[in-house]
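Example record

The entry below shows one chain as it appears in the dataset: sequence first, then structure tokens.
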Amino acid sequence: MQALFWISAFLLFYTYIGYGLLLLLVNAFFKKKSSVDENLLPVVTFVVPAYNEEEIIRQKVENTLALDYPAKKISFVFVTDGSTDKTPEIIRDYPQIFLLHQQNREGKSAAVNRAMRNVKSSVVVFSDANTMVHPQSVRKLVRHYADENIGGVSGEKRVAANDYSAVGFGEKLYWQYESRLKKANSDFYTIVGAAGELFSLRTQLFRPLKSSVILDDFVLSATVCLQGFRFLYEPAAFGVEASSATIGEEHKRKRRISAGCYQALFALPSLLNIFKNGRLAFQYVSHRVLRWVLCPLALPALLVSSAVLFVRTSNSVYVIGFWLQVLFYFLTGLGLLLAKQKKALTRPLLLPAYFVFMVLSQYAGFCRFVTGRQTPVWEKARRLPAAGDKAQP
């Protein structure tokens, strides 16, 4: 029980705190740099897969057409396969957009593959239909391609959220934490997993996705890394996305993402080859594998082991460890109960609630993966009203 306690505690600390601190320390002495060229303006194709987005698609198209990039060097491809609402009709109002539409819906990965067959540019940028992109983002992404070792560049996801919502506040803080960790990974060597809301890659490095792939953004960026290229993180290129409308809607989204994580773990075993991909494998295990596989097990193991040791021993370490966890879960429940109060005093309580919610979603995602119930075609989560001009300067 003592071994279980200390192993679980170490895994949780290292994954969520220690790894980030280690990267910051290493980067302070050995920061990996890449050259940029602010005047580099390659030909770019901007790709947006969309499914039944009639409520937001006009805003997305206008946001896309407002990007600050030479008109002769950028083209736009929207894919609306399977949409049964007015999404395709709205896009047809804009002759600048090349629309791909078919009645069959085969999932986002299949839509991306279809779009890529129409891409002739040297760089392709992907963005989600519900993400409003800052006008300078494409310029900020492509300037890194002056370095021939850079195969892709991810932008930053920002969440426009209700700060008194357990979903909105928790997701917002999570992405602020995740963005800092991605930047530290990028400075160290590479990120492993682009932000699907906005990322780019060299077109020649694209490899067609299997239609069964759930997390296309992760698989595409990981594939670029496995070809020996770095994938950078550029916070100055960002997109704003509204948070999920309810905790139930967010659960659907997190459950799907978690199932995709486990799928990717088995689909890309070469990422674990530390002899061939030393730094990449270290980052992948530290940032992804531990969080996906061991931490969901370590959390209940820590609680059970500390409870047993609390009963069996009088060691103050285990006593304190047990009561700290009791306090944590008490605050989690309290945060959920008081979330509707919408007071500033309750906001800190929303963080432990969102953390526990994420872990529970991982369990659900794993069950959907092993039972094969999570397909690449899913019911999209409802979100709060669009972020609008918050992506503007």
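Notes for this example: The domain at 1-393 is CATH 3.90.550.10 (Spore Coat Polysaccharide Biosynthesis Protein SpsA; Chain A). The chain has a mean pLDDT of 90.
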